[in-house]
Amino acid sequence: MDELKKLYRDACKAYNKSKPHFQKCRAVVQHCQQKLNDDAKLGEYGKFAGTPDIQYSAFTSGQAISRPVHPDFFTATNNDFEVNLETVLKIAKDPERKWTDSERKLSSQTIYTAIMSFACCYDLWNPKARKTPGTFFEVFMAGLLQSVFTDIAFSKHIPLTKILDAGGSPPNAEDNPDQDEAISDGNEGDEKSSVATDVVLSAPNKKGGIVLPLKITTRERVVQPFAHQRILDAAFEPGTYKSLIVCISETQLDKEAKKVKQICVPGTIQLFQKYLAPIEGIYYCDVPQRYAKNDVTDVIKVKSIGHLFCDLRQQLAQLKEQA
Amino acid sequence: MDELKKLYRDACKAYNKSKPHFQKCRAVVQHCQQKLNDDAKLGEYGKFAGTPDIQYSAFTSGQAISRPVHPDFFTATNNDFEVNLETVLKIAKDPERKWTDSERKLSSQTIYTAIMSFACCYDLWNPKARKTPGTFFEVFMAGLLQSVFTDIAFSKHIPLTKILDAGGSPPNAEDNPDQDEAISDGNEGDEKSSVATDVVLSAPNKKGGIVLPLKITTRERVVQPFAHQRILDAAFEPGTYKSLIVCISETQLDKEAKKVKQICVPGTIQLFQKYLAPIEGIYYCDVPQRYAKNDVTDVIKVKSIGHLFCDLRQQLAQLKEQA
């Protein structure tokens, strides 16, 4: 794991310095795939505890077992992954492209494979670093999107000094003139120097932007993007910022039943969408069956991650058209 | 730990069935204290990485080490705890009582000792059950408050069927006539049968209530009570429900520096208070130094848990006075 940790740290370091880092992310994924090939076995794991009938897989190494992996989305060998990624990049970069269903599926598979390769390595060989796979998801997606949308500015937080100014001086702002208060999820220790774990896309010289909360699964943290959107709608003109939540899946292992569950909270999401603030859409690689039902999709768009690129391009075009 | 787990399960079972359960909670604490006395050592741990100069302690057992414990708040022997608890109950039950500072401190110490005894046992001997100490905090406080406020109705969620009705039918409500949608933090798996992790106090035949989000530390979950309050303010008349957040501390170990940090997000709390919804107050056993500063207390009440009983009594009196 030392080599993987080093590659991962290199990618993070470049990302945090706003330097090109996607090649480093690809090197991380390649290393993970090699390591899984060499040191782990992919086998049957358990069925989805619902319909349709899906047999999930998992990696094992000695006594250790990884999170469940959807066999339709995980492409097992490194070679395929790099070929697929090149194809996805080419399609995604073409602004005129009409995506086919199989191209959308390919992009879901490619992202799923990258993130799950990393996450399963950590499950097997460094399970204590629980938050690391989620961070890699953020870093990887930022790199991927930077490769696709080359004329867009990327940042990791929305400066809120202005917001706090509206209600009085920001606390100690004079002590830290270069450090903005950010919408933080509060787990970074020193808030003044912290960044939100969102990726924010904006067009040069235009106000507002697109917020991408990136979460492998949402779980109890699903409230955060809605609360942040509410703050943005209250602090700026509503619609100045829009949020698109990007996830991998909502799967979780039911160890006793040896089944794979999808942890869904449709009522909660409907409440948040109505009473906190509306989110533009939720994108998954492995879309949870429950969220694809009408009572949810009537109030919030739920789509496969294959739709993210086109939808983002459209949102960014709207940003650029502003006065 | 088998005996402790059994005692804990018994307390939870009674609580979930809305049966008197505080004696069972006391038995849990007694067992924890005995076990810590017998099988663990309490020693110096590390200093607070700030001012004032506080030397935190911790329990150790073999290689295992517990979370940091504030020596001023932890009363080490079982005997003291039960005596203290009786004193606190007696004071808290007296509606005319003018609490002294030392009585407030005693109530902080007593609650801190109960919860930390349990949490440290789990840290040492069942560290994988990460959420269990938080659940015990909820169950214990519900029991304590039920013993004090005997004419008050306690529940674990606010039924939101009415809210969802306002915007259309609640999804599948007809399939589950007895199960209300609840404000859920989404980690219970089956949302329909889940309960929110809040304690809600209400007066018989009066609308509204007092919501007590109970969290050992808030961390990134601090957004939840503000978001829930926002939903309640949007769905009901603002002020119908009020929230008082109740916590133990915000301490965390900095393993590298061997120091104890307090993870505080003052800017975030100010933002949430202003742009999500106002919370009535935050109560701590071990009040974080940062939250006691004026820039925070100017926008939200931050108090020691010793103030909770009087403040709750006052809030409940207001509830009862309603038409």
* Helix content class of chain A: 40-55%
Order of helices and strands of chain A: HHEEEHHHEHEEHEEEHEHEH
| Strand residue percentage of chain A | 15-25%
**Number of helices, where a helix is a run of at least 4 consecutive DSSP H or I residues of chain A:** 10
- Please give the oligomerization state of what you see: homodimer
Q: How would you describe what is shown here?
A:
The structure is a homodimer of 323-residue chains. By secondary structure, the first copy, chain A, is an alpha/beta fold. Helix content of chain A is 43%, strand content 17%. Chain A is built from ten helices and eleven strands. Chain A has helices spanning 2-16, 22-39, 78-93, 101-125, 132-148, 161-166, 223-235, 266-275, 294-297, 308-321, and strands at 41-48, 55-61, 64-65, 153-155, 198-202, 209-215, 241-247, 251-254, 259-262, 281-284, 302-304. In chain A, the strands form two sheets. The first copy, chain A, has a six-stranded mixed β-sheet with strand order 4-5-6-7-10-11, sandwiched between helices. Chain A has a five-stranded mixed β-sheet with strand order 3-2-1-9-8, sandwiched between helices. In chain A, α7 (223-235) links the parallel β6 (209-215) and β7 (241-247). In chain A, α2 (22-39) packs across α5 and α3 (78-93) crosses α4 (101-125). The longest helix of chain A is centred in the middle third of the chain and has 25 residues, at 101-125. The radius of gyration of chain A is 20 Å and the shape is globular. The termini of chain A are far apart. The relative contact order of chain A is 0.12. Mean pLDDT of chain A is 86; it is low at 164-195.
